[in-house]
Amino acid sequence: MSRIKVVLNTLAEQKKKGLIPFITAGDPAPDLTVPLMHALVAGGADIIELGVPFSDPMADGPVIQRASERALAQGVGMRDVLQFVTEFRRTNQSTPVVLMGYANPIERMGAGVFVEAAKQAGVDGVLVVDYPPEECEDFAMLMKENGLDPIFLLAPTSTDERIEQVGKVASGYVYYVSLKGVTGSGHLDLDAVAEKIPAIKKHVKVPVGVGFGIRDGATAKAIGSVSDAVVIGSRIIQELENTPRENAVQAVQTFITGIRSALDEIR
After folding, report:
1. Residue 219 burial (CB count, 10 A)
2. Active-site positions?
3. Does an H or E element contain 49, and which?
4. What per-residue confidence (pLDDT) applies to 182?
5. Which positions ≥6 away from 1 have C-beta within 8 Å?
6. Where in the chain are the domains?
7. What is the rounded average pLDDT of the residues 219-235?
8. pTM attached to this predicted model
9. Which CATH superfamily is domain 3-263 in?
10. Furthest C-alpha separation in the chain
11. Average pLDDT, the chain
12. pLDDT at residue 36 is higher than 80
């Protein structure tokens, strides 16, 4: 059983909601990535999404785009990201790590080489934004054969057919994008999310995490009340942008602690 499944099953048994924060590897500085990962766990994160810097992150809004640009400017690439995971695993063997990014860096490395390297580093799942389920069954199968969970996105515009396709290949969890548009944009419509989740669960047998538009404890609690987990990214990047480097790790831990407390109020 994968680390992701173990964690999400345990949360379900405890009637708790999953907290899945996102940071971009290498931002604001490569030497802060692993300390930030540990700070997320100390603050109450259940799973970490680690963004792979990419020059054209089409699903990401300005905040995460800037994070990618800062990381790329410091020379951070896929092999560096895997090294961060390796370092994190030296002292944390229990918190799942999901790489989130785009197809190009994986294809440059080669799918087989990437999957083996990810497995060796201690990665638990991979979400490739521009790999639609109907076009990456071989990649998803390769990942599963190596004990990695292929994670897929669903959106308000996803048809029943697309949801069914995702249900056939996804494992770990699915990431429901609560808004049309890019990360960090738009107004959260809780009623629309609450309406969509049952339609997803009809075809998808893994837990559903919801992201995009979650900015504070109140929005996290609202979304957590209708989903299995919440994903929060842009707001953490903003915290890093607005905090002096020497205070960044503590600021992120404090912020995540507040989100965790809000989620734990859900009964």
Report:
1. 19
2. 49, 60
3. strand 48-51
4. 46
5. 9
6. 3-263
7. 95
8. 0.95
9. Aldolase class I (3.20.20.70)
10. 48
11. 93
12. yes
